[in-house]
Amino acid sequence: MSEETIMHCAGCGVGLQTEEPVKLGYVPAEALQKDPIICQRCYRIKHYNESSSITYSRTTFLSCWVISAKRKH
Fold first, then answer.
1. Per residue in 21-64, pLDDT tens?
2. Are the C-beta atoms of residues 32 and 5 closer than 8 Å to each other?
3. CB–CB of 64/13 below 8 Å?
4. Which string of b and e fits 12-35 if b means at least 16 CB within 10 Å?
5. Which helix (DSSP H) or strand (DSSP E) does residue 61 occupy?
6. Is residue 30 within 8 Å of residue 24, measured between CB atoms?
7. Which has the closest alpha carbon to 39: 66, 58, 52?
8. Which of 11, 22, 23, 27: disulfide with 38, CB 3.0–4.6 Å?
């Protein structure tokens, strides 16, 4: 993904990335064609009721929450 286009997960609001599967916001490149786009963590929670070992820091959680709240208004 390019630096100027930052997409966010429709589930949790985290910024998406396609480079590092073990990091927050990972989405496989082929999943970018779907609508809505959700990160691998949210996908696993939604489809398999499986949580991930990837955790949010307090700062990341709060920033995702703010982004999500802004989208609803």
1. 989 899 999 999 999 999 998 999 899 887 766 666 777 766 76
2. no
3. yes
4. bbbbbbeeeeeebbbbeeeeeeee
5. helix 58-72
6. no
7. 52
8. 11
Helix, strand, or coil here: 48?
Answer: helix
CA pair distance 20, 27, nearest whole angstrom: 9
Residues, the chain:
73
Which pLDDT score, from 0 to 100, does residue 59 have? 78
Cα 72 from chain centre = 17
pTM of the entire predicted model: 0.65
